[in-house]
Specification:
This protein has a domain of 145 residues: Electron Transport, Fmn-binding Protein, Chain A (Pnp Oxidase, Chain A), CATH 2.30.110.10. Strands 1, 2, 3, 4, 5, 6, 7, 8 and 9 form a nine-stranded antiparallel beta sheet that branches. Helix 4 crosses helix 5. Helix content is 26%, strand content 33%. The chain is globular and about 55 Å long. The chain has five helices and nine strands. It is of the alpha+beta class and 214 residues long. The longest helix has 14 residues. Pathway: Cofactor metabolism; pyridoxal 5'-phosphate salvage; pyridoxal 5'-phosphate from pyridoxine 5'-phosphate: step 1/1; Cofactor metabolism; pyridoxal 5'-phosphate salvage; pyridoxal 5'-phosphate from pyridoxamine 5'-phosphate: step 1/1. Belongs to the pyridoxamine 5'-phosphate oxidase family. GO terms for molecular function: FMN binding; pyridoxamine phosphate oxidase activity. It is an enzyme of class 1 (oxidoreductase).
């Protein structure tokens, strides 16, 4: 199998400095809305890249659950590999692959734990099956079989058959506070348009925008 000739031309559109919002969050909102309108499957799916205490990187796909000028939010088991690696090194990177639109967004920043109030509010909004799954799965740990997981789920379902399902003390969320956000628009002949927003070093909400070579 040869992959060298498996290519296509990126010709969806262009990205110019004049068309960019002064705020990366406003620009992200626009692109997210356009991704949803375009019918992209799982437009909120993003890769979360973490680095272990030993310096080993790892990635996995999760769903973005909220964002505003404070950052980008996702939820997870606090015993998971991603949560453990964030505890050791809070610097993470997010990647949104909107390839049907020839677009990518890359976020670099620091992950901060969400408050119990924020986590509880979201947990109670989840479907009951998802709440039960949070209790049943010891995320990232080794299991003997799929049957073992399903048995655990059935036991949890029986345990919480009546009343509301409580928030597990091992389940929480993170907000990635961005320090850099890149918007990538594919271009013809691989002359892509890339713009980077860098947060001001004085800690304010001002951003420096620069074009990057493709």
């Amino acid at each position: 199998m040869s992959l060298q000739d498996n290519r296509r031309e990126y010709d969806y559109g262009k990205l110019t400095r004049e068309s960019l919002s002064a705020s990366p969050f406003e620009q992200f909102t626009l692109w997210m809305e356009q991704a949803i309108e375009a019918g992209i499957q799982d437009p909120t799916a993003m890769s979360v890249a973490t680095v272990s205490a030993e310096g080993k990187p790892w990635q996995r796909m999760v769903l973005l659950k909220d964002f505003d000028q404070r950052g980008f939010v996702f939820y997870t088991n606090l015993g998971s590999r991603k949560a453990q690696e964030i505890a050791a090194n809070a610097q993470v990177s997010l990647h949104f692959p909107w390839l049907q639109l020839d677009r990518q967004v890359i976020v670099g920043g620091r992950a901060e734990r969400l408050s119990t109030v924020e986590v509880m509010k979201y947990f109670l909004s989840r479907p009951k099956g998802s709440q039960l799954a949070a209790w049943a799965s010891k995320q990232s740990s080794r299991i003997n079989s799929r049957q073992a997981l399903e048995t655990q789920f059935a036991q949890i379902k029986e345990k919480f058959a009546e009343g509301e399902i409580p928030l597990p003390d091992f389940w929480g969320g993170f907000r990635v506070v961005p320090e850099e956000i890149e918007f990538w628009q594919g271009g013809e002949m691989r002359l892509h348009d890339r713009f980077s927003y860098l947060r001001s070093e004085d800690g304010s909400d001002s951003w420096e925008i620069g074009r990057l070579s493709p």
